Structures are given as structure tokens and as C-alpha cells.
Amino acid sequence: METPFEFEQVYDAPIQKVWQALTNENEMSAWYFPQLVKFKPVVGFEFVFSNDGSPYQKEWRVTKVEDGRVLAHSWIYKGYPGSSEVTFELFKEEDRTRLKLTHTGLASFPGDPHFARIRFEGGWRQILGSNLKNHLTKHSQ
After folding, report:
1. Measuring CA to CA, how many Å separate 25 from each of 35, 55, 77, 104, 114?
2. Is the pLDDT at 6 greater than 80, yes or no?
3. Does this model's pTM top 0.85?
4. Is the dihedral of CA 121, 126, 129, 131 positive or negative?
5. What are the Cα distances from residue 89, in Å, to 50, 51, 54, 57, 71?
6. 121: part of which helix (H) or strand (E)?
7. H-type helices in 25-110, by residue range?
8. Which residues lie below 8 Å from residue 9, measured CB to CB, with a gap of 6+?
């Protein structure tokens, strides 16, 4: 059985601000994926991405929403086998917010180096530990 990848990060921001960063398409394109064109935090909504020419086009769909607390979406690559899911959970810690990310299904992707678990682990550390943290800091001033 595959062990899901989990990552936690605490942000010096209220939970509503972190939720807004996770669910507003303009904010998401700033810290998450710049190719993001359209997003709505509604179960079943299919993300819309611009085609950046990459052979690894994303096909994502919102799978779970608990307003202000949980957002989950599938993580699939068009034309490749495998399906994974990303879950963001938010926890209020006084005036700060702890985000827990869980990424399941990574072992379902092909053995190609692009799909290596270590790439996802490094990517999430960059996205959540740096990109989102900097985004929240910049937007709190």
C-alpha cells in the first residue's frame, strides 16, 4: 500500500485569508499554477488551464469542498495513466493557520522520471513552503 505524501505548513495569516488564496482563481494563478485560467470551489468543477506547450497537460476536477476548511481535487495528466488526489485542510491556530496537504495516488503514475514521487515532494515544498507563504505575506501588507 502506498504511503500518501503529507506536508504541513503554518502561515502567519487568518484562516479566511488562506482559504481565499486556495479558492480564488486570480490568487491561485499567482502562487499555485500560472497556467490556471478558470477555477471555482464547487465539487465537480473542472479546472481550466492555458496550454503552455508542456506534454504534461493537467486534467483536474474538484472532488471535495468544506467551506473555509477543506479543498480537494484530482490530479491527472491528459494522455497518461494514473490518477491522484490532492487535499488541502486548514486548521485555525489562534491568529495563524496550519495547512495540511495530503497527496494520494502518486504510485499510480508511470515510472517516467517526470512522475517520480521526489519531484512531487520537492514541488509541494516549493509551492506551499515558499510560493504560498510569500503570497500571503505580500498580500497582508
Report:
1. 11, 23, 20, 23, 26
2. yes
3. yes
4. negative
5. 27, 29, 29, 25, 7
6. helix 117-126
7. 25-31
8. 98, 99, 101, 128, 129, 132, 133
Question: What CATH number was assigned to the domain covering residues 5-138?
Answer: 3.30.530.20
**pLDDT category, 24, cuts 50, 70, 90?**
very high
**3-class DSSP state for residue 21?**
helix
- Tell me which DSSP letter residue 113 carries: G
Place of cell 509541494: 124
pLDDT for 140? 67
62 touches 45 (CB < 8 A): yes
Look up residue 116 and give its amino acid: A
Cα 109 to Cα 24: distance, rounded to the nearest angstrom: 28
Domain boundaries, the chain: 5-138
**pLDDT score of 138:** 87
CB-facing half-sphere around the CA of 107: CA atoms within 13 A:
5
Residues 42-77 pLDDT 10s: 999 999 999 989 999 999 999 999 999 999 999 999
